[in-house]
Design goal:
The chain is mainly alpha-helical and 335 residues long. The protein has 2 domains: 8-188 and 300-330, HUPs (Rossmann fold); 205-294, Tyrosyl-Transfer RNA Synthetase. The protein has helices spanning 22-27, 47-50, 57-73, 91-100, 105-109, 112-120, 127-141, 155-172, 215-223, 243-256, 260-266, 271-298, 301-330, and strands at 8-14, 39-45, 81-85, 147-149, 180-182. The strands form 2 sheets. It has a 3-stranded parallel beta sheet with strand order 1-2-3. Strands 4-5 form a two-stranded parallel sheet. Helix 8 links the parallel strand 4 and strand 5. It is globular. The structure holds tryptophanyl-5'AMP (TYM).
Length: 335
Amino acid sequence: MEANENRKTMLSGIQPSGDLHLGNYLGAIKNWGGRSEEFDCFYFMADLHAITVRQNPADLRRRTLTQLAQYIACGLDPEKNTLFIQSHVHQHAELGWVLNCYTMFGELSRMTQFKDKSAKHADNINGGLFTYPSLMAADILLYQPDYVPVGADQKQHVELTRNIVQRFNGVYGDVFKMPEFYSTKEGARIMCLTTPENKMSKSAPEGCVFLMEKPEDIARKFKRAVTDSDTERCVRYDPEGKPGVSNLMNIYAAVTGRSMEEIEREFDGKGYGAFKPAVGDAVIELLRPIREETERILADKAYLESVYRTGAERAARVAERTLRKVYKKVGFIPH
Ligand code: TYM
């Protein structure tokens, strides 16, 4: 498979800073699959990003490989999608530096993820955490994608990338293609099961369902999911008034493909007692084959290695073309 000028391109990545969870799946990975006939697809493990927060090296290695196995288990065929590890393609760090010089301090200061993470890791507010969005812009722009399928929490970074494109192209002409944020309504923002005001995240594990989790643990988490303290106790979509129930409905909709009206009808008169385990069961059945397939793939280290090697080679070919063009435009002497 070669990148082709006439086909559209899709690109996205996930940090291997924690085990993948349902938010990552429904917000991002689910939208990556099945596109390879139509698009040139690039998906990577964002390990350069992961070290903006301290990582245990052995855990980072384990999670990076597990994440690759999970991408494949989620249906991303490595023959049809370019799957790679970010640090294997040195062009990311190089373009990241250049784009740092075209990203404003004020823009970076406004990034919500920076504010959240610096509050959470007050003892390690490092430069990488601050300039992370210009590296993300480099990740994206190296491949000139049309679409970047991510959850709503990453939209701000894609918008910053668009600003960088405008600024850079404004000076040097048409160097980068303008990428579009891509997401789906149900999956864009999966909330925590125990505190539905917050997004689902590994930092609140009781409210977070991990892709590799055992069915009995998933069932328990859904049974304990916070619904709402209203008196009507009926399954009705109302994100403002009933955030807990609406989040479960979002999950159920994203997993089963049903509309909110269909879900309301299905549980009409049944209450939360029937609804919560039904959502749990749907998630268990969704994740069961992914977990089993991940375990099978993970056992074959030679296969995984061949996938990430080939992926990095293909990715580097495309990335190098863009980097050359950028270096030339800004005035570096070719070597
Ligand atoms: P990360 O690693 O935090 O999350 C990976 C993907 O999962 C989505 N996501 C969610 N979607 C819905 N509900 C949730 N609760 C939820 N939690 C996470 C995220 O929106 C994301 O799509 N900066 C990125 C990684 C990255 C990247 C890139 C993405 C680096 N370079 C280039 C796209 C293109 C990040 O931290 O995502």
